[in-house]
Amino acid sequence: MSQVVLLADDDAAIRMVLNQALTRAGYEVRPTGNISTMWNWVSRGEGDILITDVAMPDGNAFEVMPKIRKLRPDLPMIVMSAQNTFMTAIRANEVGAYEYLPKPFDITEVLSVVARALADVRKPTTGQRSGDEPADTMPLVGRSAAMQEIYRALARLMQTDLTVMITGESGTGKELVARALHDFGKRRNGPFVAINMAAIPRDLIEAELFGHEKGAFTGANTRSSGRFEQAEGGTLFLDEIGDMPMDAQTRLLRVLQEGEYTMVGGRTAIKTNVRIVAATHRDLGQMIRQGLFREDLYYRLNVVPIRLPPLRERVDDIGDLALHFLRVAQRDGEPVKAITPEAIKLMQNYAWPGNVRELENLVRRLSALYADERISVEIVQNELNITDRPTGSSSNGVVDVSVAVEAHVGQMLGEYEPNLPPAGLYQRVLDRVEAPLIAMALNACGGNQIKAADLLGLNRNTLRKKIRVHSIEIVKHSRRGH
Ligand SMILES: Nc1ncnc2c1ncn2[C@@H]1O[C@H](COP(=O)(O)OP(=O)(O)OP(=O)(O)O)[C@@H](O)[C@H]1O
Ligand SMILES: [Mg+2]
Question: For 156-307, CATH number?
């Protein structure tokens, strides 16, 4: 007998597409466009699995899902939503969804998730929250495909104590992610303690981490607690871990292995209960090869790696982020302002070496310095100095590709002097060219993959594979002026 899929979505087209695919895969599908019908089925004990949209005409699925979990803990629930925000991923996880799939979804992924969920039935899903719910504010802004991947990874990590290693260029939001992991995780009622290895004199790092006894060294006039002690029961954020001196690395590794430490100048071992989140903007793999970072410590810390992409790889977030920072400025008393779509476009063509922090500073500067109500393309151009880029710009402001590639490769080679960069340079450079090429071709074709494949002269399957590899977000639209 075939298994029954309950399918709730107010979009008839989505119901049809999923219905067909699931039926073809051998399931019996029961589609509905509203929550009350879905709840009737569930409460009568029908269905083996539920796929549900969030916002429907007669209510919000997040409101009934806790009831469903209570009534039928064995019914796996898959949430689909077009509200692709951090909170959607978090909420889906909190109400006990088996999986959360942002729209537009990939049919094959839906099918594989359904199969996996049904195979996993009777294993309990992630634990449900009780009591003090986290505030409904949004710490992380941005809905690009790249950020959604990160939200899903974060949501899965919320119920765990796993060690997380966050990497990313300066200003990409590493500290913000570390805080979100704590604030929405199961240790959120404990302390969040941060220590920045780059900001503390090297010979004081161990005393800072583990504390010191009175008289441990000159100037140690009293006993002082360390960050491990302060973070007890909570999260310890080891920021700029790549800047940690070797001997401190050795000591930290031992503490992580043994789960206990001694204070500087102390004798007794103290048990520790902290969740570790580490971050760095450095290439730790490279540092290991150069003998500057302990490989064994790296593996201890890199249990769950999270890579925050630079802002230029998620230009779709720039509009959301700019609006967000404008709103923050208003809350701080700056006058109400708007940014024109053309100005946002221009920002999307800028490289943002300082990433989100640079964008935040720009918006703060614009809202404080300019009297204009609308932030125009001219103002942004002026502040970003986009017209007079030093190299590679021809008279129309377009960068010549070969000049840009030369500059890029030259910089990479320079960074690793006197050594060579890690193997695979050819592919890495090609990837950098390929991703924007495909994204722009898709955009020019209104998101139509068949047309884009023609335009590029690529096979459709090849194009689809590359879209997946580069996590390119497809926005369907009819082209302007047509
Ligand atoms: N997704 C985001 N949504 C909203 N604000 C963000 C986001 N990402 C970063 N920010 C803001 O940008 C600034 C820089 O973020 P953060 O300090 O977390 O970066 P970082 O990666 O730790 O940088 P660094 O390597 O320089 O320490 C902060 O003010 C942060 O609030
Ligand atoms: Mg930081």
Answer: 3.40.50.300
329 Cα: distance to centroid of ligand 2 (angstroms): 21
Confidence of residue 58 (pLDDT cuts 50, 70, 90): very high
Ligand 1 pocket mutation, candidates 175, 238, 316, 321, criterion most atoms within 8 A of CB:
175
Regarding the beta carbon of 242 and ligand 1, being less than 6 Å apart is answered: no
Predicted structure pTM score = 0.66
Q: Do domains 4-133 and 156-307 have the same CATH topology?
A: yes
Whether the Cβ atoms of residue 42 and residue 50 lie closer than 8 Å to each other: yes
Q: Which atom in ligand 1 lies closest to the alpha carbon of residue 169?
A: 25
Cβ of 185 less than 6 Å from ligand 1: no
The DSSP bridge partners found for residue 235 are: 192, 275
Region 4-133: CATH code: 3.40.50.2300
| Residue range 233-261, pLDDT digits in tens | 999 999 999 999 999 999 999 999 999 99
**pLDDT higher than threshold 80 for residue 135:** no
Which residues are near ligand 2, the ion (C-beta closer than 5 Å)? 174-175
Residues 158 and 95: their CA atoms lie apart, in Å, by 13
CA 425/CA 468 separation, integer angstroms:
21
Domain 424-469 coded CATH 1.10.10.60: yes
* Residue 405 CA, ligand 2 centroid: distance in Å: 29
Helix (H) or strand (E) segment spanning residue 101:
strand 99-102
**Domain range 316-384, its CATH number among 3.20.20.60, 2.60.40.10, 1.10.8.60, 3.40.50.300:** 1.10.8.60
Reported confidence tier of residue 479, pLDDT bands at 50, 70, 90: low
